[in-house]
Amino acid sequence: MIQLVAGLALLGLWALTVFAQGVGGLTGPPAQEVPGPNLLDNGGFETTTPDNVPAKWSARDGGLWSIDTSAHSGRASLKLAGVDRQQSVPSTEQAVTLTPGFYTLEGWVKTAGLGAARERSGVRFCLDGRPRLNWWKCTTTVRGTADWTLLRQALIAVTDPGTYRVAVGAYGLPDGVAWFDDMSLTQVRRPALDAYLLYPNFRGMLFDDRPQTVRVAVAVTDVAEAQRSKARVRVSLLEEANGSVRASRDYPTTPARFTAELDARPLAPGAYLVRVDLVGEGGDALYRAADYRIVKAAAKTRERLTVWYDERNVTYLEGKPAFILGLYNTTGYTESRDTYARGQDDWGNARIAEAPINMLINYWLGRAPVPALYAYMDDLHSRGIYYLQTVNFYYVDDPQYREIPYPAAREGEDALNRWVARTLAKHRGLAGFYTADERPADMVPKVLRQHRALSEAAPGTVTYAVLGDGWENQAPLWRDSLDVMGLDPYPITKPRGQNDLAMVGEWTRLGQDAVQGSRPLWMVIQYFPLTSAGGWPTYEELRVMSWMAIIEGARGLVYWSFGARGLSWVKEPAQRQQHWRNLVAVTKEIKGLERVLLAPDAPVVARESSGGAVRTLGKRLPDGTRYLFAYNSKNTPARVTWALAEPAQEAADLGKSTPLKMDGAQLTAEFGPYEVKRYRLR
């Protein structure tokens, strides 16, 4: 044990020495979005009709609403009382027409004895697309007694243009009184200049044996004004220590997002800043995006990194490329490796290792004692499984924070994150940290701050955050606050044949667009019954969802869940075994093609006839063998003819034993609803 501790200490010291320059990434806060004008008329309820109701607003259960002189500002507010005597939930609404973008809904609320008799009641604001869309977003619910308080839901993603309703009203049927004032709905405007570091993509680390072209995605918001003032975009590389410019290049302003490039080959090892300016005709900076820090380092720096990923978003686990196959679990803790291995009723790590799992998140061990975590990682690592520690509650305002036993927690969340990162990263089985789970984008500043602390203290790890539960369209706002993004589409909610399995592919594209293809996506796949009507995914559904994500660009899959709400809740032994066999079979099929999935993407198809209904992914191996993976995104049969980019002498459907007939450089296939096919072309 003494030797182990000494070895871990030396490993930690070595890592700190190697990363004396630190890691890179966004240096400042994300670009500040600017709120536009208030889209609501009479948001302060100052203007009334002859019936003494607020103009421009329509009320349901109008007798419960009145204009009151107790105002947050101005002379009037809207008062709601007597709700508990009603049969229906009252609201006051205003229709608005919106275009796609991000919106912030806010207003002020005062309460007196609200919801005192009914705990699950109160008031809130909502942006509601019903009945046109089955979509709505609401603020938190307020109850109790409080003076004027700002109630806000920021950065609501609207994707469908059309009419929506802003609703001010009750949740449940609360007793008591509420007042509302100064309501607003504003569209969040993009910053004048948006810049996003595409490469180097792993924590700004520019290793000297990898590509040496720094790439930045740039977008100018008001192109017309920029062109009138003869402005241009200037991208520069500066020495961090003294600010001297080592490379610079100007680009004209264009309506479309473009990729700026700088040659970093002449740079010596060290830290640099990537700066993007919108400069005027005289060369003065009119607007500056937040700098990115990059660190040029020797290739040997990677020798002690447990995890990193390359320019194609391929993950390396202790130097070996891997397609990530992960699993969520929930267990108690112990210092016994054998107990972790056996688990409860022989459903422990040894059982998990029956599948080719190489990544694991244990959602319940975020505050487990360090010796118990070391024992857990010992057993996992011996099976080729790496561990992501859950830290998504390491915030002083989180109710769980006070239960964290580590002394560093008393010093604040930054100290806690650094201590946990340094301590756990001494173990080679630590892959990184699970930092966010289905959180709205107003958490981004906190998660970004945590990401920086974890990255600096544990350079050879990754942070992983998962988006979903209605917040998935906020994915672009998360791009700098994580290393690896995940989304968790759970499409199986209805009886067989009624579920939109293509949701998995759509959400994977959402993630790809958010990071502009420059960071890995590890998609979360449904492995539990979300509803009784939908039940457990079948083997074929599990397989289809997995391949849909892969075909759309996922570099990893994480299945929820081996633990609570998932496999551990299945009481019938035969059913439990069958669900597990399904996952083992699916993951083994994927693992069997790992070498192919890690190969470069290739344009195997030149043209296709399905109009995009059949989605494809092409791969090419060094020997020239090509692979074509495809799925039908529709719940109806589809026929497609592909014109291949290069002729093939033979084709094989990997799901069948007989070779396919080729028609020159064309390949035709029939797909059932949501069917997946895999071809090898030679």
Averaged pLDDT, please?
A: 94
Low-confidence stretches: 1-18
> What Rg do the Cα atoms give?
27 Å
Strand order of the largest sheet: 30-29-28-27-26-25-32-31
- Helix fraction by DSSP (H/I, runs of at least 4): 10-25%
CATH topology of the largest domain: TIM Barrel
CATH H level, superfamily name of the largest domain: Glycosidases
Biggest sheet descriptor: 8 strands, parallel
Question: What would CATH call the architecture of the largest domain?
Answer: Alpha-Beta Barrel
**Number of distinct beta strands:** 40
* N→C terminal distance: 54 Å
Structural class: alpha+beta
Percent of residues in beta strands: 35-45%
In short:
With 682 residues, the chain is α+β, with helices and mostly antiparallel strands.
Structure description:
The protein is α+β, with helices and mostly antiparallel strands. The chain folds into 4 domains: 25-33 and 191-301, Sandwich (Immunoglobulin-like), CATH 2.60.40.1930; 36-187, Galactose-binding domain-like (Jelly Rolls, Sandwich); 320-597, Alpha-Beta Barrel (TIM Barrel), CATH 3.20.20; 605-681, Golgi alpha-mannosidase II (Immunoglobulin-like, Sandwich). Helix content is 18%, strand content 36%. The chain has 11 helices and 40 strands. Strands 30-29-28-27-26-25-32-31 form an 8-stranded parallel beta sheet. Strands 1, 14, 16, 17, 19, 20 and 21 form a 7-stranded mixed beta sheet that branches. Strands 2, 4, 5, 7, 10 and 12 form a 6-stranded antiparallel beta sheet that branches. Helix 6 packs across helix 7. The longest helix has 20 residues, at 573-592. The chain starts with a helix and ends with a strand. The model is unreliable at 1-18 (pLDDT under 50).
